Amino acid sequence: MSDSMKTAEVLEGANSMLAFDVERVRADFPILHQEIYGQPLVYLDNGASAQCPRAVIDSMSEVYETYYANVHRGVHYLSQRSTDAFEGAREKVARFINAASADEIVFARGTTEAINLVADSFGRAFLEPGDEVIISHMEHHSNIVPWQLLRDRAGIVLKVIPIDDSGNLVMEAYRELLGPRTKLVAITHVANSIGTIVPVKEVARLAHAVGAKVLIDGAQAVPHLQVDVQDLGVDFYAFSSHKLYGPTGIGVLWGRFDLLNALPPYQGGGDMIQRVTLEKSEFKAAPHRFEAGTPAIVEAVGLGVAIDYVTALGLDNIAAHEHGILAYATAKLSAVEGLEIVGTAEDKAAIVSFTMLGAHPHDIGTILDRTGVAVRAGHHCAEPTMDRFGVDATARASFGLYNTREEVDQLVEGLMLVKEFFG
Ligand code: PMP
User: Which atom of ligand 1 lies closest to the CA of 189?
Assistant: First the structure.
């Protein structure tokens, strides 16, 4: 290797370290700097909700302190300012996922509401009894139950793509499920319970080949991967703010504009209408047609700032950092006797689910809590996935951009206590 190549390599390494200094990042998150039961907090429940950086918290306080007012309807200064901030957040979301326009961004309460919106509106507009919707065996309940409700209401047929023993989607089985009656494939981008990253681009390509539309549950993907909805070639994409370092109470449904605009309203009320008489109503175009009532204004502003935050750090830098943590955690946890990792797909986001011989996941979670380590224990709203692996629950460590290797070590130390207790 020439000297100049070596120098370039060193500089590149230094640049990526400069771009991602985890201690500097941690300083942005006030909640992380506290002790739980006398131990430094190790927050490993990011898959449930990630913490907010100071910038997000401050932006929301600023709204309440300086320009809080309802949007769209007011002619006064504060209302115009809050409308600008709210619509500005919509534009940030559009840029973040590379939507063709901000008109493709519907604000919903979260991923759950976004999926229910599609199940209800797309279901009413486009699905007939006997039409088929395909999901996978590793969905969150929020991408199972709405389709079961639609099945019971509208007579659609629900089909399920199997997963293998590692948690990979079985693509050959998927190809066989697709057919002329397939109208929608609704699938997760990253499985919340086992971390598998689904090859959604290929899933979409195959679905489109039979004329089906594709909805992606991106709740666990947007915090870890750079998502480009146009490149993925999907039709709908849903995610929640609170897993992306933003507040609760707001999420996003992205849809291709023509498709979105062809869907009937989901809920009726103020702000979504063009004109109302006592006989009938005319509706606004997408996205406003789907936003009945006062939206989560302050939360939208917070989400916009969360997007600014992760964008400034760089999703690629975040992914590289988390990938290092995932590899380290996987190696460390695999070395713990009696511990079994559930979900070992080749392509995984920073989520490790596991069981331990002799200890129920709730016991693991409770003991870890006493050592300051927050993990989730349970079925993770993915009971069919648990059934697939023959367990009723797992303990789950889900990592975020502020986690460190030292925290993984603290997790492993806590697990040693679990072993002492139950071993
Ligand atoms: N899908 C996945 C993959 C999730 O992880 C979650 C949250 N655990 C949801 C959907 C539901 O998100 P929310 O509760 O924010 O609507």
Answer: 3
